[in-house]
Amino acid sequence: MSWLEGRRAERRAFDRAAVLLAVSKLRPEHCHGLDIMRLAGLSSGRAHVALAWLEAQGDITSGWSEGEPRRRMYRMADRVEAQ
C-alpha cells in the first residue's frame, strides 16, 4: 500500500467513526444527513459516503421521514445498540 492509499484509508476510517458517533448522539427525529454532517464536522460528500458504507455493513439503518420535505433518517442498528 502506498503512502497515499494509507492516508485515504485513515481518512475513511475517521469519517466512519465520526458519523457513527454523530448518529449515536442525535435523537432519532433529528438524525438526518445534514445534522449528522454538521455534528461530525464533515462535508456532505464525505458524510454520505460514510453513511452508505456503515449502512451496507449493517451498523446503521435508514428510512424516509414522514411529511415534507422528505428526508432520509438514520439510526443505529439494533445489533450495534446491544453491544
List keywords for this structure.
single chain; 83 residues; alpha+beta; Arc Repressor Mutant, subunit A; two-stranded antiparallel sheet; 4 helices; 12% strand; elongated
Q: How does this model look, in words?
A:
By secondary structure, this protein is an alpha+beta fold. The chain has one domain (3-81): Arc Repressor Mutant, subunit A, CATH 1.10.10.10. The chain is 59% helix and 12% strand. The chain is built from four helices and two strands. It has helices at residues 3-25, 33-40, 44-57, 78-81, and strands at residues 60-64, 72-76. A two-stranded antiparallel ribbon has the order 1-2. Helix 1 (3-25) packs across helix 2 (33-40), helix 1 (3-25) packs across helix 3 and helix 2 packs across helix 3 (44-57). The longest helix has 23 residues, at 3-25. The mean pLDDT is 89.
